[in-house]
Amino acid sequence: MGMHVGLSCAIRKALRRSRTVEMGRIICLSMSLEVAFRLGYWAYTTSKVTMEAMVKILANKLKGTGITVNYMASKTIATELFYDGNTEEIINRVTNDCPHGRLGLSKDIMPVVGFLAGDTSK
User: What is the Cα–Cα distance from 95 to 81, expressed in whole angstroms?
Assistant: First the structure.
């Protein structure tokens, strides 16, 4: 629920700001839904689908304003939160599911985020 409230606030602020700025970037980062379509992940999956829908709605609403909206869903990124919230068994299973046989790192996704945030992504 907190994520949706936060995203709703961001949407309202972006709509207000779209009247006064010529350019802006909104980039929502998430994890791929691929892992979510498993038994027991219904709440997680619901929140991700809702977030993706809200991003699409916002992108359509801001069309033509100079503010771009993107949603980036990567495979699992090795973060403190991921390690703290999972057992070793889950960590190993998720790692083995990754194409490169390892969890992603922040540095893996930063070039894409940089591109989306930059002027060339118009």
Answer: 15
